[in-house]
Amino acid sequence: MENALLVGLSRQMVLERQMDVVANNVANMNTTGFKADNAMFEEYLMPVARENRFQPADRVLDMVNDRGTWRNMGAGPIQQTGNPLDVALNGDGYLVVQTPAGERYTRNGSLVINGQGQLVTADGQPVLGDNGPIVFQPTDHSVMITPDGRVTVTEAGATNTESQRGQLRIVRFAAPQQLQKEGNNLYVAPAGVAATPDPNTKLIQGSIEKSNVSGVVEISRLIQISRSYAQVAQLLSNQSDLHKNAISQLANVPT
Amino acid sequence: MRALNTAATGMMAQELNVEVIANNIANMTTTGYKRQRAEFEDMLYEHVRRIGTQTSTQGNILPVGVDIGSGVKTVGTPRIVTQGTLTQTGGKLDLAIQGDGYFKIQLPDGTFAYTRDGSFQMDAQGRIVTAQGNVVQPGITIPANSSALTINSQGQVSVITQGSTNPTTLGQLTITTFLNEPGLLPIGDNLFTETPASGPPTDGLAATAGVGSIQQGNLENSNVEPVTEISNLIQAQRAYEMNSKVITAADQMLQTTSGLYR
Fold first, then answer.
1. Using CA atoms, how far apart are residues B175 and A82, in angstroms rounded to an integer?
2. Which residue in B has a C-alpha nearest to residue A30's C-alpha?
């Protein structure tokens, strides 16, 4: 008798969670290198509270459960910024960032130079090249980043010769869905997921990759969620009416 | 309902984005102004079901987990230090730097600030000063009754004094470069001061290695591109609107829930 309430409740729980995912996508519409999340659901068969000895047996109860958040790994639009230290990744690779907690991966190529001359993310974490962080000299100028990640500068005193300051590591993952978002535009690879060098991803200097959140998709999803939520609520209130009627009619104790 | 807070962070971020864009547009014609861009990052994630946890004793693991984010935060407003276009003004003390470097200015308290705004004046003592009256380093005094003030591409200031036909060199302007120009701290009045992020200042001379050259009679325009700013403004406004829709929808869902109880 209470089953409709429980099934409805399970649906409302996942709808709220899906709403949180949509809200996070919309909030990150302008976050560089952000990848949109989608919630995935699965049917959950109630294994208990069931009696099969009667003929016919009770019908199996279906609930809904959220199984995972699936990331849309599609490329975001590339925006030209004209800043020589902005790089967009054209392909499915990641830049490698050194954090106190270990190596992290990012697609946010909005880089800056810190006071020590290191190439760092906007948070100040060094971006790794083949031989550790990339360090510039105070007199370096005209920074160039080639599509394969080589960082070259023109040194003081030289006019046309370029000196290499390192090559940015670009890595890829066989199963990028296994990467976990950590916030700060960083991804962490769980144990057993190895990064391999990616020669196919090219860097585009002077551009950044915008968020791949699509406003239309998120808003239509938003409408769908709030309407489904209202429908389930209607269902629950109908069920509640049934109970009320049953109580008032069946238990009509004459006074 | 977390969605309410998440969307609120989104609205706050877009509000800041609009403030940055507004400041860029307001400074569209400010000499030597460098545009800024708001840079955002996603916030912490709650790992409701963690990727890689075992789902059976046979060692099957979850290929995807449930990660729910909690919104967006602003990480910085980096300054984009590209060269602005030069406008010819014909002013004898209007200087533009073509390339890297800043003019070095002494503030009234004795400390130094740096600027790319080269619209200088002469004060009562004949010193070259900024529009606020701060002395441009190294403090060159132009004698009275001199004519034909010339500042060459290397920053050498020369005049023809009365009674002479040959120009006299009075001094050479200091041009300072920084490793990380976006790390300079803006203090208003088109001035910047050094910070640990900018690296220490390197005093040099114009038109030498790594330092730009000086153009007399020109001023550097701001590098704000109106088209970019307006399209960014549209984006920011729409994103703000969509975040507010999320709040409305979340509110309606809560209202539906509270409507269940009669």
1. 24
2. B40
Which of B17, B69, B198 is facing A181, going by the closest CB pair? B69
Are A68 and B45 within 8 A, CB to CB? no
Put simply, the answer to whether B243 touches A19 (Cβ < 8 Å) is: no
Cβ–Cβ under 8 Å, residues A118 and A135: yes
CB contact under 8 A, B40 and A112: no
Question: Is the complex ipTM more than 0.95?
Answer: no
Cα–Cα nearest to A205, from A78, A31, A91: A78
What is the H or E stretch that residue A88 is in?
A: strand A87-90
What is the pLDDT confidence band of residue B212, given thresholds at 50, 70 and 90? confident
Q: Is the dihedral of CA B1, B2, B4, B5 positive or negative?
A: positive
CB contact under 8 A, B246 and A23: yes
Percent of chain B beyond pLDDT 90? 19
Residue A240: list chain B partners with CB under 8 A: 260
- Cis ω for the linkage preceding A56 (within 30 of 0): yes
Question: What is the pLDDT averaged over residues B202-230?
Answer: 86
